[in-house]
Design brief:
- Helix content is about 35%, strand content about 15%.
- With about 270 residues, the chain is α/β, with parallel strands linked by helices.
- It folds into two domains: about 180 residues, Rossmann fold (3-Layer(aba) Sandwich); about 70 residues, no CATH class.
- The strands form two sheets. It has a seven-stranded mixed beta sheet, with helices on both faces. Strands 6-7 form a two-stranded antiparallel sheet.
- It starts with a strand and ends with a helix.
């Protein structure tokens, strides 16, 4: 799939993958912080932003999309970073094509399915997507109207604000979702998948620096995961970002930028 992609800066190539409900816009401020050291490529993942929609939404498909993007850009080797869902896609790519990677940064996501945390996260996202799917956009005149309708299902004002960035005006001045909400809902189990601890691959992924960033206020990476992460990525550094939740690139952008620079030795 040919992804929509923005670029910024100059230097060695760095591809950054956004998370669920996100888009390339979410990482522009980070791109500007590191643009003197990298040429930053910011794709919209499938079913997000300006990229095409598809009924298929799994990590094999997403990693294939990144391979196609890299080939289109003539990037034989590049640095790769990803947040949340984008982090899982980045890890899938690194496992499949480690020879293409110069360095890997994973922002606040574990490779693994954690129960009961995994079930709780699945139910939270299911509630969000069902609220989006059931929102009658023909009766929405403003984003304030949409926020009021979603408030009964999505309690967090921060999450609603993030979701509402995906509303856009279409022909006839009506609102539509930029996200492919039906596909995300139908494929939510695949999106929430990770590597089951009992199925950790024997082959280690090595040959380039690996950084995992964990938000101190987030539970998307558990301390119990650390030895298993190191079993797959034995060179990985696991760094906790203080005063940051799951969206640590919004909470502590300077710290995220600093660690991106460390991948290429520009700390």
């Amino acid at each position: 799939m040919r992804l929509f992609c923005r670029s910024y800066g100059s230097g060695p190539p760095l591809i950054i993958l956004h998370g669920l409900y996100g888009s390339s816009d979410n990482w522009m401020s980070i791109a500007k912080m590191v643009g003197d050291h990298y040429t930053v490529y910011l794709p919209d993942l499938r079913n997000h932003g300006k990229s095409p929609h598809s009924d298929i939404m799994d990590y094999q498909a997403m990693s294939n999309d990144i391979l196609e993007l890299a080939d289109q850009l003539n990037l034989n080797n590049f640095f790769l970073a990803g947040h949340s869902m984008g982090g899982k896609a980045a890890m899938a790519f690194a496992v499949n094509w480690p020879e293409r990677i110069s360095g890997l940064l994973i922002a606040d996501i574990s490779p693994f399915v954690n129960e009961p945390d995994g079930k709780a996260a699945y139910l939270q996202h299911k509630t969000i997507l069902e609220a989006m799917y059931n929102l009658n956009l023909t009766k929405i005149s403003t984003r304030t109207d949409a926020d009021a309708e979603l408030k009964g299902k999505i309690n967090s004002e921060k999450i609603r604000g993030f979701i509402l960035k995906n509303l856009q005006r279409s022909t006839g001045n009506r609102f539509v979702w930029k996200l492919n909400v039906p596909s995300l809902l139908n494929n939510l189990k695949s999106i929430m998948e990770g590597i089951e601890l009992k199925n950790i691959p024997d082959e280690q992924v090595t040959g380039f620096p690996v950084i995992f960033l964990k938000g101190s206020e987030s539970d998307y990476i558990n301390i119990e995961d650390y030895p298993y992460i190191l079993k797959i990525f034995p060179a990985a550094e696991i760094i906790e970002i203080r005063e940051a939740g799951h969206w640590l690139h919004a909470d502590q952008p300077e710290e995220v930028a600093k660690n991106l620079l460390r991948l290429s030795g520009n700390d």
